[in-house]
Amino acid sequence: MSLLEQLASNLDLLWGGLQETLYMVIVSMTIASIFGMPLGVSVVVTEPDNILENKKINFVLGSIINIARSIPFIILMVAIIPFTRLVVGTSIGTTAAIVPLAVAAIPFIGRIVENALKEVDSGVIEAAESMGATPWEIISKVLIPEALPSLILGLTLAVISLIGYSAIVGAIGGGGLGDIAVRYGYQRFQGDIMLQTVVILVVLVQLIQSTGNLLAGRLDKSA
Asked: Where do transmembrane segments lie in this chain (predicted)?
């Protein structure tokens, strides 16, 4: 095989791996956001002296986040294999990898949302309450809009973390760039492919972080 043919073969391989990685990250991030954002909001609004104070619910939700976040991803991934099989019918492949990725990201996003909402000035919330705003109106029209720059930065961090996790699931049969790095770069001693996967991941993370910083900067009213 000529050098050009080898390069073309590598590009096809890496392009396929990149597509699988993006598929895993985008779908798992979407699922995790659907569940994680309401979880984080609920933790904040049920705190003492907040708009929907409920100590029992707050304790339960906070405990769920703390426990889930304390489990190392590699252990979580193995522990929920039966659940993964129940959901997608298999524990191998990119679609199966989405399940542990989403499960791991839900409490992470919940904590990100919680921290972002806590940065909102309490005076703004009190002003909305004094004008008769309902709890839902305060959440949707005050808390989330005011915390949007921090939320975007936090969710950007979550996406980058998922890219790292996707490399882990790829290393044990989940596909993507992690799978390519292990199968070709490590097991077959093809250092060029290993280096290329690393470069692609670094560039991908830089692009995502720069985009998140740009969006957060544009939405930051205090800037």
From this structure: 22-45, 57-81, 87-109, 151-173, 193-216
169 touches 142 (CB < 8 A): no
- Which of 45, 80, 83 lies closest to 62 in space, CA to CA? 45
Distance CA 57, CA 8 (A): 56
Confidence of residue 212 (pLDDT cuts 50, 70, 90): very high
Distance CA 75, CA 51 (A): 37
Between the alpha carbon of residue 108 and those of residues 18, 27, 76, 169, 191, the distances in Å are: 24, 16, 14, 18, 34
Identify the band that residue 223 occupies on the pLDDT scale cut at 50, 70 and 90: low
Rounded Cα–Cα distance for residues 174 and 177 (Å): 10
Taking each helix axis from N to C end, the angle separating 94-118 and 3-45, rounded to the nearest 10 degrees, works out to 40
User: Could you give the domains of the chain?
Assistant: 3-219 (1.10.3720.10)
Q: Where are the alpha helices (DSSP H) in the chain?
A: 3-45, 55-70, 73-79, 81-88, 94-118, 122-130, 135-138, 144-169, 176-180, 191-219
Q: Environment class of residue 223 by beta-carbon count within 10 Å: exposed (0-12), middle (13-18) or buried (19+)?
A: exposed
DSSP designation for 34? H
Contacts of 66 (CB under 8 A, 6+ apart): 107
